[in-house]
Amino acid sequence: MRLIDAKNGDLVRVKSFAKECGNFVCRINSMGIKKGDIIKVLNSSFFGPILVETNGSKIAICRGEAKKIEIEKL
Fold this sequence. Notes:
alpha+beta
């Protein structure tokens, strides 16, 4: 399952990132999202960025980047 597929209120764990995007992984890590982190999806509407909360921080992730984040639902 990918982050873009998560629904509002879902609690998920980050499994992996797209391997072909090394810069993407560095950027997401610098935003505070790392492999194994537990994320709460705050807003995953049909349009616009996906708003998540992790480690006490709220982060907006564009839909293209959310497609590259593999998750598992908790």
